[in-house]
Amino acid sequence: MFSKTSKIFVAGHRGLLGSAIMRRLEADGFRNIVTRSKAELDLTDAASVDAFFKSERPEYVFLSAGRTGGIIANIAYPSSFLHENISMQDSVFEAAERHGVTRLIFYGSSCMYPKSSPQPIPEDCLLTGPVEKTSEPYAVAKIAGVVACRAYNNQYRSKRFISLVPNSIYGRNDNFNLESSHVMAGLIRRFHEARIEGALKLDLWGTGRPRREFLHADDAASASIFAMANSDRLENTHYNIGTGEDHSIADLASMIAEIVGYNGEIVWNTSKPDGAIRKVLDSTRFSSFGWRPLVSLHDGIRETYEWFLDSGYAKAHI
Ligand SMILES: NC(=O)c1ccc[n+]([C@@H]2O[C@H](COP(=O)([O-])OP(=O)(O)OC[C@H]3O[C@@H](n4cnc5c(N)ncnc54)[C@H](OP(=O)(O)O)[C@@H]3O)[C@@H](O)[C@H]2O)c1
Q1: Mutation probe of ligand 1 site: the residue of 10, 53, 68 with most atoms within 8 A of C-beta
Q2: What's residue 317's pLDDT?
Q3: What local confidence, expressed as pLDDT, does residue 198 receive?
Q4: What is the reported pTM?
Q5: What is the pLDDT of residue 276?
Q6: Ligand 1 atom closest to the CA of 168, numbered from 1
Q7: I need a labelling partner for 186 at 20 to 30 A (CA). Which of 60, 88, 193, 275 fits?
Q8: Residues with Cβ < 8 Å from 165, sequence gap 6 or more?
């Protein structure tokens, strides 16, 4: 049973999601948590991963490690996104199966759904059409992970592997590097810099009309721990985890401008592409078990910006 003394491995514990899972587990009194940084244990190295599972014998695993990034990074490093994510998943799944892990949570991504999915996107849209080309290698790795979870459960007649599919996550420990950040962190940094520089206008890509869903890392962590605790009730399939609320990029930009204190003009560069017009997950299946996100978008952005200001990151890079 998942309890305060269970031995838990949080892979990627310093990342955006992994650090939120750590905070939540520690706050809830879990006290048998094992972690390894990438430098200590490269999860793409199957032999090292196997040796680690053999000696540490974790019972519960949050696989919150991965090669992540926004559109620029996905276009620049497509083979790395495919290779590293597939290798990490494969090494960890095999070791978890071989060494008797009780439950493991794997994270898919909303970009693994077809480009033409209905909105909000239900889980059964998976593998019904082509995905967005710019993130195809990452999406294919995520699809492989979700299919692998089902396949292991079927082959070994177990409920060991659980797949959760978050939409865009944000929060403290996000990546604010403009070359590899996601939209939320990228916008926070750009508005911050514009305020510091006293800029009168800030150019943003597109029309501002596309609508996106954002999930605070603390809510993604609470969904993960809820899934672990309620794993016996889950079926052998993947579950979307989101707020069910979408916001236009223009509304998001105005909210960030207000929180950051930027008073200049926002100029939409309509010669740049918008991407999908709407991307929101249908998370009703997972919420029917009783899980709810708690962090409002405004509070979440404010907390993220405060962390950004306090973090060594903001001071070192800006
Ligand atoms: N962020 C999102 O919006 C989002 C949305 C949907 C799904 N997801 C999925 O959720 C998971 C976590 O994402 P995140 O945003 O929290 O990622 P992140 O902030 O980029 O953190 C990734 C973590 O993975 C670790 N890592 C990377 N390569 C590794 C390797 N070869 N060996 C061992 N550890 C490695 C890093 O370790 P070090 O710190 O030691 O370098 C880091 O802690 C990923 O699977 C991602 O695909 C994320």
Answers
A1: 68
A2: 54
A3: 96
A4: 0.97
A5: 85
A6: 3
A7: 88
A8: 107, 108, 109, 110, 112, 123, 146, 238, 239, 240, 241, 281
| Nearby residues of 298 by Cβ (< 8 Å), 6 or more positions away | 255, 259
**Distance between CA atoms of 187 and 183, rounded to whole angstroms?**
6
CA of 85, closest atom in ligand 1: 45
67 CA distance to ligand 1 middle (Å): 6
Instruction: Give the separation between CA 62 and CA 64, rounded to whole angstroms.
Output: 6
Half-sphere exposure of 23 (CA within 13 A, CB side): 16
- Residue 71 has what pLDDT? 85
Ligand 1 pocket by Cβ (under 6 Å): 12, 14-18, 37-38, 42-44, 64-68, 84, 88, 107, 109, 166, 168-169, 175, 182
Looking at 204-296, list the stretches that DSSP marks H as alpha helix, in order from N- to C-terminal side: 217-229, 249-260, 284-287
Residue 305 CB-density burial (10 A; 0-12 exposed, 13-18 middle, 19+ buried): buried
Q: Check residue 301 and give its pLDDT.
A: 98
For residue 19, the ligand 1 atom closest to its alpha carbon is 16
pLDDT at 231: 97
Residues of the chain below pLDDT 50: none
Name the residues annotated as catalytic: 138
CATH class, 8-175+214-245+279-295 region: alpha beta
3-state class (DSSP) for residue 238: strand
Question: What phi and psi, each to the nearest 5 degrees, are found at residue 113?
Answer: -85, 150
**Residues β-bridged to residue 168:** 214
